[in-house]
Amino acid sequence: MALSTASSPASGVIARVDLRGRHLTLRELRAALPRAEFDVEAALEVVRPIVAAVREEGAPALYAAAERFDGIAPPRLRVPTHVIASAMESLDPAVRAALEESIRRARLVHADQRRTDITSTVTDGGTVTERWVPVDRVGLYVPGGLAVYPSSVVMNVVPAQLAEVPSLAVASPPQADFGGWPHPTVLAACALLGIDEVWAMGGAQAVAAFALGIEDGTDVCDPVSLVTGPGNIYVAAAKRLLKGVIGIDAEAGPTEIAVLADDSADAEHVASDLVSQAEHDPLAAAVLVTDSAALADAVDAALVRRVAATKHTERVGTALAGAQSAIVLVDDLDAGLDLVNAYAAEHLEIQTRDAAAVAARVRNAGAVFVGPWSPVSLGDYCAGSNHVLPTGGCACHSSGLSVQSFLRGIHVVTYSADALREVGGHVVTLARAEDLPAHGEAVLARHADLDPAS
Fold first, then answer.
1. Do 236 and 349 lie in a common domain?
2. Does residue 8 belong to any structural domain of this protein?
3. Residue 274 and residue 154 share a domain
């Protein structure tokens, strides 16, 4: 069902959608807030030959892809340790202090996520232990397109380290402004976290190199078990194409912010938060859901001022004017909650009276930011939470990156002879009921007298 939208005020920069007085089904609610076009399936046709070239040619394909997509090939694919060390030495002290605080807070939060092994006693002499074991090797992707993302180094590396992954490698695109190496702030963040395996490669070709492994002279990038980290549509398409060869965290799409607010919200706070996420990408989604027409008008006016004043005016303006962004009017907060739960935003702010109680009713969101003093940008950098989050509505079934993302649960079954005897007859019966008699015979080979047919 297509929902009509009323035009914004002539001076506005964002569409207005009025859902007051309408009782919508879940399907209609999901359609009410369209997202940016992000066709991963179409991008697969671009990515297939890139992945094939890396599979067939190895390192030469990566150098060629860097020339084509990044405008420069790196001097080497693996960044030398002295280049990484130099980046940290030249890092602005204020940026270093901020990164160190970001790391400290992320470690505090993620340390509490580490699961412990649990043994369940099923019967005397029969136990099942769930062991949590880290994957063997992880490729962590750090984008380098419209912005610089040392914070993504923190968000990927910290949970992987706390999961005790034994082998970590970071990939980030080569930069023409820095001699073909990744951005020095990204390299410095790697150094602060003790990561010395960094590869100057980006896009789909980086995902392929991690999945398949490459050799570049004496430098070897062994295949990884898992690739994590956000990227553009081609990174998402490469993840989809190679899923099964590798595990992935998610197919990340353009960033999203939704704000659920009532008339107690500060319009300048709301507008600044919408702009803060819109500056990521022209496809970024910025959505305000409110039951207050007065707040909607005030936010619209604030957006006009802030878009004109912000550094990335064109990018922000394009994102806010896109079909993926809107101010949505609803009858009340209950209707607003229904809408944001159906939308399942990557980032959801609650700026209402009794915000904690409202936030407790949120079921679908990548991360929830509660009250006027918890902007999304805090979570992007220094809240301690992780900013690698599900997009495109995937928050209704998926979680953000965590220590758990890097662990696998393995059941360890230990039964004694008596414990097997106690239940063995049931195993034989169920095996025969499924017409898998050899399953039962594996028990009868140990306890022949358990045959129910004898």
1. no
2. no
3. no
- Our answer to whether residue 89 is catalytic in this structure is no
Q: 170-201, pLDDT tens digit by residue?
A: 999 999 999 999 999 999 999 999 999 999 99
Whose CA is closest to 76, among 92, 59, 88? 59
Say if residues 117 and 131 touch (Cβ distance below 8 Å): yes
Query: Rounded CA gap, 452 and 449, in Å?
Result: 8
The verdict on residue 2 lying in a domain is no
Question: 405-446 pLDDT, tens per residue?
Answer: 999 999 999 999 999 999 999 999 999 999 999 999 999 999
Residues 166 and 293 in one domain: no
Q: How many Cα atoms are found within 13 Å in the side-chain-facing hemisphere of 93?
A: 0
pTM of the shown model = 0.92
Tell me: pLDDT of 10 over 50.
no
Residue 301, domain member (yes or no) = yes
Question: Looking at 280, 347, 349, 387, which residue is catalytic?
Answer: 347
CA-wise closest residue to 401 among 148, 212, 153: 153
Based on the fold, state whether residues 69 and 51 are members of the same structural domain.
yes
Task: Identify the CATH number of the domain in which residue 71 sits.
Answer: 3.40.50.1980
Burial 213-233 (b: 16+ CB within 10 A, else e): ebebeeeebeebbbbbbbbbb
Catalytic residue among 346, 422, 434, 441: 346
Q: Write out the two tokens for 437.
A: 């008699």
Position 2 pLDDT exceeds 70: no
* Catalytic residue check, 347: yes
Which of 167, 159, 166 has its CA nearest to residue 114? 159
Query: Do 282 and 242 reside in the same domain of the chain?
Result: no
**Which residues span the domain enclosing 307?**
15-37+253-379
